[in-house]
Amino acid sequence: MLMAGGVMDPSRAPVAFGRRAVPQLFEELQQPDADRRLRALNSLCDLMHDPERIQQTVRAGFLQQLKVLLEDEDPSVRTTTCELLLMLSCKYTASEALLSSSLLPPLSRLLDDSSSSCRRSVHRVMKQLSVWTSGASALLPLVPKLMLKLNEEEDEEVLVLLLSTVSCCSREDVLPALASDGVSLLGQKLSHPSPNIRREAAAAMMTLSVCEDGRQQVCEQALLPVLVGLLQEDDIEIQIHAAGVIMYAVVITPGKQQCLDLDAIPVLLDLVSKEKEEEDRRRVLVMYSLRVLTALAEAPEGRRLLLEQLPLLVARSGAAEEDENIRRAAQTAVSVITWTP
């Protein structure tokens, strides 16, 4: 029996009452008429706002039926199927079912789809899957392909999704991105006109910089001048991620020397000396900046320059109202700066 009520939306298929709704719509997906399949998909997307409907879809094994729709000749059907998968992937149990199904290979092939809207929808699904640890691990084999896409795509939303997906996957394993010329490709995006892309590129670069090979490449490819420049942006997230990359780079000697040559200390001290704010993200930026300054103080030139600025750091290390983590980081900086053999 179909739901009664007002005028039927022509873009939607009629929906049966109760628990019959989901099975009935999946039956419609097997119809030869592309318009009927599309209307059924639209109605399913509406239903997937209800967690119980998602559970019903997963438990009944309906996900496998979507594989053929990812290969449908109609781009609207392919795109809307991806939109349905996006809604499902927002729930952990459904994302696990998706990953354990046979849907990932045909989904990944749609990265090269002729329809830009379909490609965009695929990237949204992959970004959402990468949020989950299991999803990020499952997508690692695709990282080399995703890195290549950074040079091919011009759509800002897609580039942001790409960078975010690579970042999430690289938290599980940096090697696929590093082996795909990741530092160079991400480095090119650090100077992109869009702040959204600069922000995501800096975040991904920070992830790659966790390992020594990533740090070495950041230094070898002369990216520190760009990163020091990003510290002076208005966007707090861009500043944080740039400071994070620098924080890892100065662990090694070339990173220290390049930052000193770039006269980065005044820029970092300016960030540390900003009026104390309660925002969590601002505290993270101050923490990263203090750690960079501490590392630079390990070099004689850095120690000499920072001794002249000691009152500022002492003030941040002793203020009773100061955040405890910042106070400790400032105390460590003061200790390294004032160390004598």
TrEMBL record:
It holds the Pfam family TPR_DNAAF5. InterPro entries: ARM-like (IPR011989), ARM-type_fold (IPR016024), Armadillo (IPR000225), RSP14 (IPR042856), TPR_DAAF5 (IPR057978). Residues 90-261 form the Dynein axonemal assembly factor 5 TPR repeats domain. It comes from the Eukaryota. SUPFAM superfamilies: ARM repeat. This is Dynein axonemal assembly factor 5 TPR repeats domain-containing protein.
